[in-house]
C-alpha cells in the first residue's frame, strides 16, 4: 500500500485559515467542507485531520497524526514529546499579563500574593517561578479577560495581538511573557518513507515562503547606469539584462527581498532607472 502521512490542522479558528491556505499554495488539493473530521488529498500522499488546536500536540505525540500545525503557545503549554520542524510565520501573538487599567503597576512584584486567571498554567507557572513571584494560578478554559471584573482574579495571563480585547475589558498589558507563531511539528519516530514525504512538503513550504518574502523587479535603464543598478539588485545569481529596441537602453530583471523593497526602489530611481515594475513571486527555489 502507498505510504501516506496524516497532518493535524485546526478545524476552525485563528490558525485554520492560514494553515489550509499554506498547504493549498504548496499545490496540495483537498476537500474541507461539510464539517468532516478527516479528508484525504487528491494529489499528494497526505490525509487531513481537522481538530481543536489544544489536541494537536497530543495527537502528533501519540502518532495518530504524523505532523501538525499548531501555535507555539499550545505546543509549549501541552509539553508533549514532538519535534518542531519549521516556523510558519503566521498566527503571531504573545502571551501577556494584564491587570485592571485603574491599578498602578510598578513591576512584577505586583503579582505577589495575587490571583491570576489563565488558560496557560504551565507557561505562566514557569514564568512566575523563574521570576520568584508567588501568585495563585486559576486555570480557566476561555473568556479569561472577564475574570477580574467578576472578581475571580486580580490579573490575567492571556493571548494578545492588537490589545483591543484587553481594552474593551478595562485591562492593560503590563508584561509580555511569551511570543508565539504557528509551527509545523512532527512525531519523533517516523518511518523513512514518511520522512521522505515530509521532506517534499518542507521543500514546497520553503519555496512558498521564500517567494512571499521576495519580489520580482523589472526596469529600464540607460546603459551607462547598468553597473550601478546591477550592484543594487544582484538577484539570485545575477540580474537578466536585455537590450531595449531603443538604442542605448536596457531592461533589467531581478529579485529583491520584500523588506528592502522601498529603499532599493529609491536607490534604483536615483541611479537612473525608469518604468520600474514590481511583481509578486508565487514560488521561489534557490
Ligand atoms: P480551538 O477551538 O481549536 O481550541 P481556540 O479557541 O483555542 O480554538 P483560536 O482563538 O482559534 O483558539 O486561536 C488558535 C491559535 O491562534 C492560538 O493558540 C494562538 O496560537 C493563535 N492566536 C490566537 N489569537 C490570535 C490573534 N489575535 N492573532 C494571531 N494569532 C492568534
Ligand atoms: Mg484551543
- CATH architectural type of the largest domain: 3-Layer(aba) Sandwich
Biggest sheet overview: 6 strands, mixed
- Distinct ligands, ions and cofactors found in the model: adenosine-5'-triphosphate, magnesium ion
Radius of gyration: 25 Å
Assembly type of the chains comes to single chain
Termini separation: 34 Å
Q: In CATH's first tier, which class of the largest domain applies?
A: Alpha Beta
Give the amount of beta strand, in percent: 25-35%
Shape: flat
Helical proportion?
25-40%
Structural class: alpha/beta
Mean of the pLDDT scores?
96
Poorly predicted segments:
none
What's the number of helices?
8
CATH topology of the largest domain: D-Maltodextrin-Binding Protein, domain 2
Count of the separate structural domains: 3
Order of helices and strands: EHEEHEHEEEHEEHEEHEHEEHE
- CATH evolutionary superfamily of the largest domain: Periplasmic binding protein-like II
Tell how many strands the DSSP assignment holds: 15
Order of strands, widest sheet: 2-3-1-4-11-5
Domain Histidine biosynthesis HisG C-terminal: 213-283
GO molecular function, one term: ATP phosphoribosyltransferase activity
Subcellular location: Cytoplasm
Domain ATP phosphoribosyltransferase catalytic: 52-206
Amino acid at each position: 500500500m502507498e505510504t501516506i502521512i496524516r497532518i493535524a490542522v485546526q478545524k476552525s479558528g485563528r490558525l485554520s485559515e492560514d494553515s489550509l491556505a499554506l498547504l493549498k499554495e504548496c499545490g496540495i488539493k483537498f476537500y474541507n467542507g461539510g464539517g468532516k473530521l478527516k479528508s484525504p488529498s487528491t494529489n499528494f500522499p497526505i490525509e487531513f485531520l481537522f481538530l481543536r488546536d489544544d489536541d494537536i500536540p497530543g495527537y502528533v505525540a501519540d502518532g495518530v497524526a504524523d505532523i501538525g500545525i499548531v501555535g507555539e503557545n499550545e505546543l509549549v503549554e501541552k509539553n508533549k514529546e514532538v519535534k518542531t520542524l519549521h516556523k510558519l510565520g503566521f498566527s503571531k501573538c504573545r502571551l501577556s499579563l494584564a491587570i485592571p487599567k485603574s491599578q498602578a503597576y510598578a513591576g512584577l512584584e505586583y503579582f505577589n500574593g495575587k490571583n491570576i486567571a489563565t488558560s496557560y498554567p504551565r507557561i505562566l507557572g514557569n514564568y512566575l517561578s523563574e521570576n520568584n513571584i508567588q501568585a495563585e494560578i486559576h486555570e480557566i478554559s476561555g473568556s479569561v479577560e472577564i475574570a477580574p471584573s467578576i472578581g475571580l482574579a486580580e490579573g490575567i495571563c492571556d493571548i494578545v495581538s492588537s490589545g483591543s480585547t484587553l481594552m474593551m475589558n478595562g485591562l492593560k498589558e503590563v508584561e509580555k511573557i511569551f511570543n508565539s507563531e504557528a509551527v509545523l511539528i512532527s512525531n519523533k519516530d517516523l518511518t523513512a518513507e514518511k520522512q521522505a514525504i515530509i521532506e517534499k512538503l518542507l521543500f514546497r513550504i520553503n519555496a512558498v515562503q521564500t517567494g512571499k518574502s521576495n519580489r520580482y523587479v523589472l526596469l529600464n535603464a540607460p546603459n551607462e547606469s547598468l553597473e550601478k543598478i546591477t550592484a543594487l539588485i544582484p538577484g539570485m545569481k545575477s540580474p537578466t539584462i536585455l537590450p531595449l529596441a531603443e538604442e542605448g537602453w536596457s531592461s533589467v530583471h531581478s529579485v529583491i527581498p520584500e523588506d528592502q523593497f522601498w529603499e532599493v526602489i529609491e536607490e534604483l530611481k536615483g541611479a537612473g532607472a525608469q518604468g520600474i515594475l514590481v511583481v509578486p513571486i508565487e514560488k521561489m527555489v534557490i
